[in-house]
């Protein structure tokens, strides 16, 4: 699969991008139903937000387990198994008798969805390297970023015809469709001779070596913190838009979906101009945009600004994620081809672990204030900036000094 034609390359991007859609669809599709779920289960907003937290934890833990599993067993077999689990978990969510069963089923659903996320990224590294990896990942992001546009709009549309349980029945159908598509169209990309032994201690050593690699850890934390801020936005924005600004579920879906366009713009700028502007330069630009947008957003919340003043910085904030996610992934994965599944797992784990911590914080002051969301988003952007300059840039400076001494 190394020398793919342009058509085959696009087909592979569509296939892997469809797997990447599992993440945003699992997270975003039910967001317009948050207020309805609160009423139906006679529970609190924070408890419903915990269902998002458990889903994020499942997505993170699932990648930690499924990534190394795919280094041992190959990509295809684990992927198909977890798509079946996703289908069953989605049906359980649809018919959960109480909020606690629903929360537990959301964890399993997130765990199963992690298979699509982590294995699709590992397949990319199996097939590409260098700037071709960056370009293909940008193409993959173009497909995958349709999720944040389509998912909330789909959720709002489903709610116009049925109740929130219909959302999870649709997700179950998506799981079945992906299973059938993958089983018939995705070849194995990790041949047996390149797989690592089924040795738990070796897997732990692989994770240890990744965490000790200051450059890899810096890129992983940069991506982790910035996406954690976006999870805070995802968790809080349904209440901000609908409870504070009074928009309908359909209007919310449209506003939320517009930000998916921002993701596409960010990632495609990288793919289009990576031959002119380096990945590291793009990463720094993205970090600057996220911090400025986060600061403007917090000030707007403090001043109780009109809706338009809120929407604009959020658009730029989300666009910065497209830039940061594409470049940090490519730079982190570049030297990890031999353990791509494990590296992909760690890159996927940190955002969901950190996101599971930030998501409940936005509701800590109730459903009618946006200030906690603004504080969390800006704090996450600052931590991402510090991670890059404290680990990656410092490590590069040390390497430059060492090479100068050797001369």
TrEMBL record:
It is found in: Cell membrane. The chain crosses the membrane at residues 45-67, 79-100, 106-124, 136-161, 167-186, 216-240, 252-270, 282-303, 309-333, 345-365, 371-391. Residues 12-396 form the Major facilitator superfamily (MFS) profile domain. It is a multi-pass membrane protein. Keywords: Cell membrane, Membrane, Transmembrane, Transmembrane helix, Transport. Its main location: membrane. InterPro entries: Efflux_drug-R_Bcr/CmlA, MFS, MFS_dom, MFS_trans_sf. Belongs to the major facilitator superfamily. Bcr/CmlA family. This is Bcr/CflA family efflux transporter.
């Amino acid at each position: 699969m190394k020398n793919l034609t342009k058509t085959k390359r696009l087909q592979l991007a569509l296939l892997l991008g469809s797997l990447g859609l599992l993440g945003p669809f699992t997270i975003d599709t039910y967001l317009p139903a948050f207020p309805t779920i609160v009423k139906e289960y006679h529970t609190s907003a924070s408890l419903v937000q915990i269902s998002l937290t458990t889903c994020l934890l499942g997505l993170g833990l699932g990648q930690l387990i499924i990534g190394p599993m795919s280094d041992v067993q190959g990509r295809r077999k684990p992927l198909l198994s977890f798509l079946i689990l996703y289908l069953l978990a989605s049906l359980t969510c649809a018919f959960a008798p109480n909020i606690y069963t629903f929360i537990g089923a959301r964890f399993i659903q997130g765990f199963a969805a992690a298979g699509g996320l982590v294995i699709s990224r590992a397949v990319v590294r199996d097939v590409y390297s260098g700037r071709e990896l960056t370009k293909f990942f940008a193409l993959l992001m173009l497909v995958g970023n349709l999720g944040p546009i389509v998912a909330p709009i789909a959720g709002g549309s489903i709610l116009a015809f049925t109740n929130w349980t219909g959302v999870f029945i649709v997700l179950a159908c998506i799981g079945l469709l992906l299973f059938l598509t993958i089983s018939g169209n995705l070849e194995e990309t990790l041949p047996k001779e390149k797989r690592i032994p089924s040795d738990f201690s070796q897997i732990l050593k692989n994770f240890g070596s990744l965490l000790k690699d200051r450059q890899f850890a810096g890129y992983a934390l940069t991506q982790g913190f910035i996406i954690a801020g976006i999870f805070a936005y995802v968790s809080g924005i349904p209440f901000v838009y609908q409870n504070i600004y009074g928009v309908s579920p359909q209007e919310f879906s449209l506003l939320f979906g517009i930000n998916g366009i921002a993701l596409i713009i960010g990632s495609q700028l990288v793919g289009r101009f990576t031959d002119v502007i380096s990945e590291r330069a793009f990463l720094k630009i993205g970090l600057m945009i996220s911090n400025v947008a986060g600061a403007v957003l917090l000030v707007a919340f403090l001043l109780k600004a009109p809706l338009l003043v809120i929407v604009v910085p959020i658009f730029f904030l989300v666009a910065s994620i497209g830039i940061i996610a594409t470049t940090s992934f490519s730079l982190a994965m570049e030297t990890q081809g031999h353990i791509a599944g494990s590296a992909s797992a760690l890159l996927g784990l940190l955002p969901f672990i950190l996101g599971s911590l930030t998501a409940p914080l936005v509701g800590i002051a109730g459903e009618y204030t946006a200030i906690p969301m603004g504080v969390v988003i800006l704090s996450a952007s600052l931590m991402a900036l510090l991670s890059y300059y404290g680990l990656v840039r410092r490590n590069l400076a040390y390497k430059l000094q060492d090479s100068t001494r050797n001369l």
